[in-house]
Amino acid sequence: MQLRKENILIVDDDINVLEVLQRHLQSWNYHVFKAVSVKEAVAILRDTKIGLLITDLKMPEIDGFELIKFVSEHYPNLPKLVVTGYPSVQNSLVAIKSGVVDYLTKPFTKEELKLAINKSMSISEEKNTSANKSIKEKNEAYGEIIGNSEKINDVIQLIDRLKDNKATVLVKGESGTGKELVARAIHYKGKFARAPFVAVNCGAIPENLLEAELFGYLKGAFTGAESNRNGFFQAAHGGTIFLDEIGNASLAVQTRLLRVLQEKEVIKVGSQKTEKIDVRIIAATNSDLLDMIQKQTFREDLFYRLTVVEINVAPLRERKDDIPLLVDKFLFKYGVEYKDRFIKMTPEALSVLKRYNWPGNIRELENVVQRAVIMSDKVIDVEHLPNHLKYTLDFSDDALEPLKVIEKKYIEKVLRATGNNKTKAAQILKIDRKTLRQKLLD
Ligand SMILES: Nc1ncnc2c1ncn2[C@@H]1O[C@H](COP(=O)(O)OP(=O)(O)OP(=O)(O)O)[C@@H](O)[C@H]1O
Ligand SMILES: [Mg+2]
After folding, report:
1. Residue 386 neighbours by CB under 8 Å, 6+ apart
2. Is any ligand 1 atom within 6 A of the Cβ of residue 146?
3. How far away, in angstroms, is 184 Cα from ligand 2 center?
4. Quick one: which atom of ligand 1 is closest to the CA of 171?
5. Domain 317-390 belongs to what topology?
6. What are the pLDDT digits (tens) for 198-218?
7. 247: Cβ below 6 Å to ligand 1?
8. What is the pLDDT, as a whole number, of residue 304?
9. Mean pLDDT, all residues of the chain
């Protein structure tokens, strides 16, 4: 096999090893990127397309195993080669099932290095050309959209179908479910990814300005219009315009949008002339548009034009299986950002997260994990989670019960969470200890 010019990232805390590797790799015409820590490596991976990762295992702070896990999750097709001074780690490599294709023990000869690189790269080529990629692999290829529940897999399959055509899409879902992420995935995974993606928050732009912002205006169209200007639609030419919170667009703007969808043309404010546009429209909403149609605050004809394809992003409470994966992603992100290492979470804390109902969805989960990373010194435990998560009642069984029974159950729950500390429990419940005792006896 011929060696090709590829970007290779080498990660080792030993500068001498980095130097040796670099010399060899450059002599074969590879581009070399060097990192002395996992944190640096992650930053390089974000910015650069890397063709092979060569990493040491034992490093201070975050070790090579964590890097391999991270890369397997976020860059599943990137081949990995481990260079280690500890041959006995072979077993642990098998154990983490991370898809490491080969390993090389130090010291190694130039010839051995060359063989190992060839092997790593050719195995990964086979893997990439295999037509039979599992959904999980495809899912991982979406990088940002984490989750393996049926609901998120359905969304990912739809994205796959939509990404290369310009059908209008309406993304529906509660706040924080990932609607914008879905819109971005449709754009950036498809063949129009090089054209612009323009996001417009229809709720954040004052009603009287939205029209001019969207379609542009001519000089003198209104006070303050000092020169001709293009709008967001012209800026998105060839690409995607994302109309977030479409339910907040005024009826006047809705009428204009309908025209855009019907005629594929826009008219600048103050102009008579139409301009042809070539833009994919993705709209998003967390309000009930059908209800708005009933109340005559949303145009029915626009609704049907927008919903050529509908994507429903389910609330997190309906896909709780995704919680561990999302937590892992956020632990890595904030662990590296705040503590320079991967922070772990106890199973107890994770089960509190799984029990909670997440009204603010993934955005709320991300905030909770971020805060917990800051609050904890080593491992995140129940104590690092906000109180309202710890004491939520699980109403999953449908039996309806008298208030007194629920009250008692809740008091017992708070007592368990405080390790049976009555003073603390009374404080949380904002009642005195005597009342607490009385309520338990009732
Ligand atoms: N499946 C997912 N995997 C990883 N991160 C996610 C996922 N879904 C959402 N997020 C993250 O959660 C946050 C909220 O997502 P996003 O802004 O797309 O939600 P939204 O539905 O547009 O919310 P809003 O209605 O409040 O605007 C973002 O930081 C996003 O990256
Ligand atoms: Mg949004």
Report:
1. 368, 371
2. yes
3. 11
4. 21
5. Helicase, Ruva Protein; domain 3 (1.10.8)
6. 989 888 788 778 889 899 999
7. no
8. 93
9. 85
